[in-house]
Amino acid sequence: MPPLLSIVLPVHGVERFLPQCLGSLRADGAAPGEVELIAVDDRSPDGCGALLDAHAAADPRMRVLHLAENRGLGGARTAGLAEATGTYVWFVDSDDWLPEGTIDAVLAELRAETAREVPADVLITDFTHVHHDGGTEPNPWRKVLAGSPLVSGCTAAEHPALFNAVLAVWNKVVRRAYLLGLDVHFGRGHYEDISVTYPLLLAADRLLYLDRPCYNYRRGRPGAITATASPKHADAFAQYDAIFAFLERNERADALRTLVFDRTVKQALTVYDTPGLVPVELRPEFFARITAHFAKHRPADYRYPSGVRGVQYRLAARGSRRAYAELRRGGRLPGAVKRGAGAVAPGVKKAVRSGARFTAYNAFKRLPVDENLAVYAAYWHRGYACNPAAIYAKAKELAPQVRGVWVVENAERAAALPAGVPYVIVNTPAYLKAMATAKYFVNNVNFPHAMTKRTGTVHVQTQHGTPLKAMGMDLVDRPLAADGMDFERLREVVGRWDYLVSPNPHTSKHFARAFPGTYQVLDTGYPRNDRLALATPEQCVDARRALRIADGQRTVLYAPTHRESRGGYLPLLDLPALAERLGPGWTVLVRTHYFHDGGAGDLTAAPGSATLLDVSDHPVVEDLYLAADVLVTDYSSMMFDYAVLDRPIAVYAPDWEEYQEVRGVYFDLMEEPPGAATTDQDALVEALLAGDPEPEARQRFRERFCPWDDGRAAERVVSRIFPLRA
């Protein structure tokens, strides 16, 4: 009778780690012959071969293959698979190890599966990251798997979020006959397993998840491909070709082509963006390979993601490497929008070409720093907004000798500025001079990396929200949320900050870790919230009338946040159904995240329903706060601002489990909400109709997140940054 489980162990250059791995392969509860161990000595240059032979002499389950030439990890796995006879096969890397009792637990699952009419093709296990200092971290994608249909068994099409989890082969126990029947092969070089794991998941009749940590994955060891510069990172493209060749011949798998394409592009750009992986001299070629991947494999119905990631993908598809690099430096593509270029302000010329731009900027840097010039910007030069706008207004009052100028991305944005606000347009000579000579810089994001920090200048980072979700360096081990973030570049830009404005003690605590630096934290509250703290009833009435909300209407502001794992705006709330339940005495203002273009889409509701208004393009979000009687959101930082008004807040978060797993959060929103919190739309409607069902929760929330909101935050910031006029 063949073994139930074959463990294939490729071995090369891991003499230091091999004894721990071999010692972890015990199976005290296994029947004789139920487990076989096949170790493949891939012509290891150290003492691994002798260690394997010694272990095999004492363990009758184990046999050793000594390869005549080095075949790489993929080739060693292939050699081991050819010798395996088990019903299931598990590829374990020899620098990792299994927790105690793992093989017995896996065998119990496999025995149950073989008794089924349709046994699992792939058993996916949970795992633990183990860092070089001995610290551990649970599987960051566990909640994509736990509680999902995978627990009882399903196909990839029934749970496509599976592809947001790790796609390595080492945490997947595979039915051997199924694997051999797929006609897929481990690749050569780096990323050798994805040409097998993608097909394994895509074509399976039944995928199963075992919610138990069954694998200790060693992160950050010297020589690991995720931390080593090598031309072999380009091997990924051959594996991508193999994956798409499989899609061509498998109808079930081909149904998920778009998802697979997006995942491969994301991985390729992450490799390209990660410092120290692709050698400098090979980066142009690697980027060209990404462009070729778009041309070769992009599905006919493919839609680019929204926001900055979508812009990155478009530039990669066009082969625009320099523009892509500029986008990476500044967070936005400076000068990308040129609409209305002829309508610039008097005395402002058109944008300077790239080469001449830096020549001019460097020339302007020879001028003295202007001690009375401050440059302001917000949301990647979108306009007059947020904390910088509140600081600008208060500085005009308290430090009028300091001239403020706003940076906007084009003439259209300039036309939308409040009357009398001075501005410069990105990449014009006036902009280059201001950036080269100003004493003060105030922004709620980062200024372009190419603009260096001169000695004696003062950079004020205000950020633009209280963090529920993980930020900055806290995303190092969350690749789906980091979305290709350049952490070395992040450290560089944080090094420019002199001040970081904090809205509350919670933010001060977490930003100190997320953005490590030598700056001073200003525990002042958010200047943008002064307007809310000082709002009068008359101002609230004026805000409602400006939005044409009829008198007597109960008004809801619905504002969902951006989700990295989704494309464009995708409301999880059925708005027409909500409007129908609320009835004609209600108005619902719908505000999409600023990353999403096109607004909220069709908001047609049935007769007799609440009025649905798309306010996504309204320029001042504080107007919407003042107009609304209640806020409905999911994870948006708007909840922390709106709480200043002490009005009801309802959290509707049907994907909370997925969101906190993918993105990471700083506290459990469902345990510590600002008001009613639910994952069910009917429960949300009931909470809205109840009026103010959770005032105690709101009070606790306000005590934690609004202690500094007294209407004087801007004054405190200005007095710390600028010389005040006596």
Automatic annotation (TrEMBL):
<dbReference type="InterPro" id="IPR029044">
    <property type="entry name" value="Nucleotide-diphossugar_trans"/>
</dbReference>
<feature type="domain" description="Glycosyltransferase 2-like">
    <location>
        <begin position="6"/>
        <end position="113"/>
    </location>
</feature>
<dbReference type="Pfam" id="PF04464">
    <property type="entry name" value="Glyphos_transf"/>
</dbReference>
<keyword id="KW-0808">Transferase</keyword>
<dbReference type="InterPro" id="IPR043149">
    <property type="entry name" value="TagF_N"/>
</dbReference>
<protein>
    <submittedName>
        <fullName>CDP-glycerol glycerophosphotransferase family protein</fullName>
    </submittedName>
</protein>
<dbReference type="InterPro" id="IPR001173">
    <property type="entry name" value="Glyco_trans_2-like"/>
</dbReference>
<comment type="similarity">
    <text>Belongs to the CDP-glycerol glycerophosphotransferase family.</text>
</comment>
<dbReference type="InterPro" id="IPR043148">
    <property type="entry name" value="TagF_C"/>
</dbReference>
<dbReference type="InterPro" id="IPR007554">
    <property type="entry name" value="Glycerophosphate_synth"/>
</dbReference>
<dbReference type="InterPro" id="IPR051612">
    <property type="entry name" value="Teichoic_Acid_Biosynth"/>
</dbReference>
<dbReference type="Pfam" id="PF00535">
    <property type="entry name" value="Glycos_transf_2"/>
</dbReference>
<keyword id="KW-0472">Membrane</keyword>
<keyword id="KW-0777">Teichoic acid biosynthesis</keyword>
<keyword id="KW-1003">Cell membrane</keyword>
